[in-house]
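Support case: zinc ion complex. Customer-provided input:
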Amino acid sequence: MFTAQTIVKVLIPNVVNTGYDYRLTADADIGQFVRVSVMNRPYIGVIVGFGDSNLPNEKIKNVSEIYPHKLSVDDLTWIKKMSAWTCMTPGAVLRLIINVPDAFLPPRVEPLYNFNFDATGKMTENRQMVMDAYSSNDNTPMTINDLRNIAHVSSAVINTMIKKGLLTLCETKTIESNEFDYKYFDTGDVVLNTEQSAAANVIGAAVEQGGFSVHVLDGITGSGKTQVYFDSVLRAYESGKSVLLMMPEIALTAQFMTRFRHRFGAPPVVWHSNLTAARRREIWRGVLNKKIRIVVGTRSALFLPWQDLGLVVVDEEHDSSYKQEDMGNYHARDMAVLRAKIAGFPVVLASATPSEETLHNVDLGKYKILKLTSRFGGAQLPKISTIDLRESRPSDYLLPNNETLQHGCLSPVLCDAITETLNNKQQVMLFINRRGFAPITQCRKCGWVATCPDCSVGMTYHKRLGKLLCHMCGRTMQMPQKCPECSNEITMYGAGLERIEQEVNIKFPNAKTALVSSDTIITRQTLERLVTKMENGDIDIIIGTQILAKGHHFPNLTLVGVVDSDMGLYGTDFRASEHTFQQLFQVAGRAGRGEFPGHVLLQTYQPDNPVLNAICNYDRDAFIHDDMAARQVAKMPPFGQLIALIIEGEKENVLKSFCEDLSAHAPILHGGKIMGPIAAQIYQIRSWYRMRFLIAGDENANLQPIVSKWLSGVRIPANIRIKIDVSPQNFM
Ligand code: ADP
Ligand code: ZN
Ligand code: ZN
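Agent response - structure generated as follows:
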């Protein structure tokens, strides 16, 4: 406890800050939230200790206000350790926590609008986006700012909608603060099977006992991992603790919400990036007051001001969306484990394909593994086999009124299987992880390739859009009629989603098809509509990218065809095989989850590839064993540590000479090495040039302080940005 008049250090949520000194106007505790002014701007900050500046007493300002709430000492330790691990400043970490600007002020009174669902008229794209914004917020009223931020529509569009009566001014001006006052209980609707109960009891005991432990819930697709961790959630909740359930955004489906409500008698409080400002505020305050004790959310939910956490569940723990890459670099799964270790509570990591980092921790005895080996309700795992494209060659086809032969991608064996499935009135999923129509647009004569003027990547032709699109920066361009260099004919190479759709429509003209990718699915709601159509049998063949691989349960889906299984096998980064394995395994897991057995066909030019063989034989252990052995030899994670430095510059020469300077000052590593600088694989993004260093060390190397010291010893010129990526997932 600090008494009034004490000079304390206050950390504010700002990247350059490690704390400023202020004088207390009343007694306050460490961790307590205070309002202070910095350069005449108000900030919410946190007391982190005694002040230590040498400023004369009269120069030190008073804190403007002391709030009754606080972060625990454990939270402060967590901020410090997270900062040390990620090389983010403590202020940058605090900014992740204090991410609701007006949390302690009375709610702002702004005009609120409801969506008029009764209004008739055409369903435009804007209107759909506004509707979706409302449904991701349980149709609560929204301010104009909310609409702009969540639906991404312009003020002009909003004003027109108001004029047309599509948006109506709402009577009540503030949001009900008891909105999230849910009481949860065990509805008794779910009875766990033997294997599930065994796993649930182990976690349950850890929850009740308290203390740090990590449980890897490793269950095959369809084994019912959700119900197992729901059991743990309930036990933690009933013992008075708070619980966080993290999942990838795309897994926050209506199917999931329904299951939650079934089990707990009330809906979950959901946290994601598309909430209205008022809801963010209510949830933040609710968690702080312990009125909200269960939150289901994306990675940023880890940074809510949790009080007395008793359990964190990380579902689909291998998912790459847990790694944050722009506003600071952190891995939410690992930071959750760090938090649990400091505060002393159990963590559950659930997945059908746990990451090798996690499995390595199991091998080391740091994490405990719990296995679910059979599908719930006795459904059989699908049979997985390869199709050798050298033997079953895809036939070319003609489009109506078009003489040129189109290059086919679907082999006769796959086509026969599709026909049979459709005849049985069952559903088909075709998977290809490439958006758009064709990835390469090239002149056959002079070799010209369509590339983005701002990024050093090729542009993909998107047929629906009717344009070339840069997948890096989103820039679009008209498709040229002829080669801009030599005026000869232009050809499109390679197959994306839209090209497969075209072939399906020609080869299966009577089938109802649907396309799923991040181009067509902008919101969870659009995905939701597709899921409903799938469930109602309004789709025969669903064609999609990795969005389809996750979480969905379609009982009548019996055939999964992977159009290009070779695509990820030879990626340039060391996780390529792991990611291919995980992705294909997850996609395969969509087939045959209901009463009919499923079948998965992998089209490939290399049917003997060990990764594909391991998938066909369900031999995950063999795959993991081989892949880990290779990594151990190469000292790659989890057998080594990596830190990437990404240096970006507006001017190429400034960037190059700065990197030379950095190189010249590079420290000597014992048991490690510094690689680079090299031009990044994507050398230019949004017209900034990019170079990379990679720092590699032993498994227990403490590289962070070395990197920090190195960087602090060089002068960083203007127009140079440095990103420190600890344990990078992305090497582009
Ligand atoms: P996973 O996440 O392991 O792939 P799910 O949790 O989606 O598996 O479970 C598969 C299906 O089995 C779901 O429809 C789920 O509701 C059902 N299920 C799992 N466990 C039970 C149970 N104990 N009682 C009733 N239904 C269950
Ligand atoms: Zn040309
Ligand atoms: Zn671009």
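The mean pLDDT is 91.

Case will auto-close in a few days if no follow-up is received.
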